[in-house]
Amino acid sequence: MNVQIIEKNGRPEWAVIPYEEYERLVAEAEMLQGIQAFDEAKSALANGDEELIPSEVTYALLDGKNPLRVWREYRGLTQQQVADAAQISKPYLSQLESGQRNGTTEVLAAIAKALNVSLDDVVMSEQER
What we know:
By secondary structure, the protein is mostly helical. The chain folds into 2 domains: about 45 residues; about 70 residues, lambda repressor-like DNA-binding domains (434 Repressor (Amino-terminal Domain), Orthogonal Bundle). The protein contains 7 helices and 2 strands, in the order E-E-H-H-H-H-H-H-H. Strands 1-2 form a two-stranded antiparallel sheet. A hairpin with a 2-residue loop joins strand 1 and strand 2. The protein is rod-shaped. The N and C termini lie far apart (about 55 Å).
């Protein structure tokens, strides 16, 4: 590799390299970042900090289906189980799932906790509907 060193006050200040070498180094740095991101994601999955969401769930949410119902069904929970965990009535949860009622932030947060999702997963999807 042909490198030109430019000094300032007797100390190396700049290294000038051929452009092709620069491009190779940039590509390798990007590759390393990708590998590190992959390793972090893999570790988060292994530790239970992240989960893989099946495409059916993603498509259902993108298709505008009620996120409360989508997440509840994905988790394999009944309306009664979620209602009990969120300390609301089953009919109220049913009305929220059908879109007949809008929940308060507190209620939606309790349901999100029961479904093990973030409030954003419930609120953002509700606003987009």
